[in-house]
Design a protein that fits this description.
7-stranded mixed β-sheet, Aspartate Aminotransferase, domain 2, 4-stranded antiparallel β-sheet, alpha/beta, 15 helices, 13 strands, Aspartate Aminotransferase, domain 1, single chain
């Protein structure tokens, strides 16, 4: 890349940023700096989103209410704690493409996954298999393996992991659909990602749910890398359940409160579940009866009352999605990604391979063709140049220009740093 072409990339980025209708939202986030106070190029929202500036004020208000009211804050706080999870319901439902009573903010992602599998993985007779993607996020695989063991079943006999075709990274849906067509009467649960964490591949969730249900299997989605990243229509897809975390694209902070979706058709079902008192019908919850009566909808899967200080950052983040609008967010995601893809194709094609397909969200995964050792050196140089990305073994650099707070200039800065690092 010549100095002139690099300058042209930055000029193009500057023009795109000048016309960006979401540009003002960047000022609503805390932007990381290095030790010298210089701004970093933060492209790691797929791992931890940035802090909305309103978070500090909202948490301080909860602390003030706790100090002033003590236990009475459950009913008298400016946002009464007893109904706190409901404050997140509308915003999460819009992002999930769900009805409000189909979503609930609770726990952490893997805890929610276990709670969902306790209800929706019910192996009987020949129908015992769980289907996941090969290379699934390790926590998901651990959860699935332990669920199988809980039922006295083995991974070797009852877990099918669908891999990408030989020599490819993209899994697609054809192999899953073929498996369900051939062995659907053996499949109890399909558990699939909305966006594959390593490659950034986004899946057609409606097609997957349709194929699973046609085979008589339950279908659930891990939306850790999809919620707040790609458009979702969980209600219309017909999925039985979904789970997500709150700290990536939802910008809820480290270890933020997670969430779950349960389709309305299960709202008043007698599905077995691992129950806790907060999942009890709120009309009679405080009667402390021995008999459990589930709250209708996804709320019936709650175990305990929500952790207020962990939930509060989501109250700062979710309104920003509403202010931006889904269409504008999606348009900017495509604009940021297109600028990066074009620059990489023009200037880094011999050294980097983009393994993320066209079906994607914010994340792009870049393979360093020279291998792991060179890749690690390139990654270290990016870090030294103030670019915050992440590394996935053996040779992948992941970046995610996020439309709420990243700019086209961030993309140009990344490309400049990549070119400098790859040159050495």
């Amino acid at each position: 890349m010549t100095v002139a072409s690099l300058r042209a990339l930055h000029d193009q980025a500057q023009a795109l940023d000048a016309a960006d209708p979401l540009a003002a939202l960047r000022s609503r986030f805390a932007l990381p700096h290095n030790a010298q106070g210089q701004p970093l190029t933060y492209l790691c929202g797929h791992s931890l989103g940035l802090m909305p500036l309103d978070t500090r004020r909202l948490i301080d208000e909860e602390l003030q209410d706790w100090a002033a009211l003590g236990v009475d804050g459950h009913h008298r706080a400016r946002r009464p704690w007893i109904d706190y999870a409901e404050l997140l319901q509308q915003g999460l439902a819009r992002l999930a493409g769900a009805q409000p009573d189909e979503v609930v903010a609770m726990n952490s992602l893997t805890v929610n996954l276990h709670l969902m599998m306790a209800s929706f993985y019910r192996p009987t007779g020949r129908r015992r298999l769980i289907v996941i993607e090969a290379g699934a996020f390790s926590s998901d695989r651990h959860a699935v393996s332990s669920q199988l063991a809980w039922h006295g079943l083995s991974v070797e006999d009852c877990l099918i992991e669908i891999a990408a075709p030989q020599g490819q990274d993209v899994i697609g849906t054809a192999a899953l659909q073929q498996l369900l067509a051939q062995r659907g009467d053996e499949v109890a649960l399909v558990l699939w990602p909305g966006v594959q964490y390593r490659t950034g591949e986004a899946f057609d969730l409606a097609a997957i749910a349709q194929a699973a249900r046609a085979a008589g299997a339950c279908c659930g989605f891990d939306l850790a890398h999809a919620m707040g990243n790609v458009p979702l229509s969980l209600h219309d897809s017909g999925a039985d359940f979904a789970v997500w975390c709150g700290y990536k694209y939802l910008n809820g902070g480290p270890g933020a409160l997670a969430g779950a979706f349960v389709h309305q058709r299960h709202a008043r079902s007698d599905l077995p579940r691992l129950s806790g008192w907060w999942g009890h019908d709120p009309a009679t919850r405080f009667q402390m009866a021995a008999q459990f009566t589930a709250a209708p909808g996804a709320a019936g899967w709650q175990i305990s009352n929500p952790p207020i200080l962990s939930a509060t950052p989501l109250l700062a983040s979710l309104p920003l999605f509403e202010a931006a609008g889904a269409a504008a967010l999606q348009a900017k995601t495509l604009s940021l990604g297109s600028l990066l893809l074009d620059a990489l194709a023009t200037h880094c094609a011999e050294t980097l391979q983009v393994i993320t397909p066209s079906s994607r969200g914010c994340q792009l995964s870049l393979r360093v063709k020279a291998g792991r050792d060179t890749g690690l050196r390139v990654f270290d140089q990016l870090t030294g140049a103030g670019v915050v990305a992440d590394w996935r073994e053996p040779d992948i650099i992941r970046v995610a220009p996020v439309p709420l707070y990243n700019t086209h200039q961030d993309v140009a800065q990344l490309v400049s740093a990549l070119v400098a690092a790859l040159r050495t």
